[in-house]
Give the backbone structure.
Amino acid sequence: MSSFKDFRLKPYLYDALNELHFTSPTPVQKEVLPKAIKLNNLMVESATGSGKTHAFLIPIFQNLEENNPNCQAVIISPTRELSEQLYACAMQISKFSPKPISIYKAYGGLDRLNELNKIEKLKPQIVIGTIGRLHDLVINENILKIHDAKMVIIDEADMIFEQRELEEVDHLMAKFVSFPSFLIFSATMSNGLKTFLSRYFTNIETISLKEKNLTKTNIEHLMLQCKARDKEEVLLDLLKIINPYLCIIFANKKEDVDHLAMVLAQNGYKVGKLHADMESRERMQMIKRIRNLEYPIFVASDIAARGIDIDGVSHVINFDLPKDIEFYIHRTGRTARFDRTGQAYTLYSYDDDEYIKKLREKGLIVKFVKIVDNSLVQTKMEKPVKKTTSVMKQIEIDAHMKVRVPKKVKPGYKKKRMEEINKKIRQERKQHIKDIYKNRAKKQREEDFE
């Protein structure tokens, strides 16, 4: 289907799509919409920025009975930021409806007492929230009534179905008295997660729209090696060269997010920051200011890597590589949204060679670059210099090798073995120092003789 008109949607949905300048459905929307509108159970794997959000919002509104005041759809997301973003997208559609539609957002950081009072007065037809707050309002307080919902959407499913949240998911699913349609979405789904979800939800169809490359082909991946130079200096030099329109810099630790933001500010950049230790309202305000282009650069932890859609991100920079390769996909997916292009830079060291090797084995096409005369020059991946082991460290290694674990172990053998190892280390170090002085004295005598 080449046009949204082929789906025969409600008239006001076309008005909403026109405002967004959505003329043709994306590949994931072409696959999902006809089946989701029929309330089929679907498990959908598709790249970030491919249009997943409207692939489930359109079927929700298409099936919504505007005159029915009961809850008809529940959207579960892993973070407050994504919940707020989904709420904004849903509100954009609902404003075109000739009849009022009540939409409720449920996530931490909002005034709880006010929220409880609001729910009593408002019977939401669409509920959007995080698993923790939904569990609180539905299970603990029994004030948010979602049991009649005919559609349940789980966004970024790989984060929601983590072990620590499975019990809350179980409690929530048990509240649905009918058999709602389940739409489960994620940019990445491991085989283990697919198997688990197939058991958890019966009669579910899998739709997988993976890129041939590990990530979208309209993202250019560039690896910039940092050897002797300080990473902060390399970052500053890189920013001068690329002069980004809107850039996200990812760091692994919140302390590094704060530090990098300070360094960039000291060097004249107007920079924002985003990490989990910030208050919810502060984070929401920061995202709003970033979307308004008040900050052309912002430093973030992985809280900004999942699902958050900030229009116009031209560059992503990995100051640190994420521990999980899947998060490399999510981070770099913040740029090149929809049909745009983008660049993803990674500052790497020799210690990251194995990580990059795994990325390439998974199909990621990368370029290696270096900074020469204030410009980027393509190069080959340099082979790591073999690190030499210090003499003192080698003495420790040899001592552990020489003192073997006995074939028959007795109580306290570990302590006795370590005592013997430490004794050998002291002896060998003492002998090594004697040899140094002995060689120096010999060399001095030879020089005096000459």
In short: Residues 4-209 form a domain with the Rossmann fold fold (CATH 3.40.50.300). The CA atoms of residues 314 and 342 lie 5 Å apart. The mean pLDDT is 85. The chain has three domains: 4-209, 219-379, 391-441.
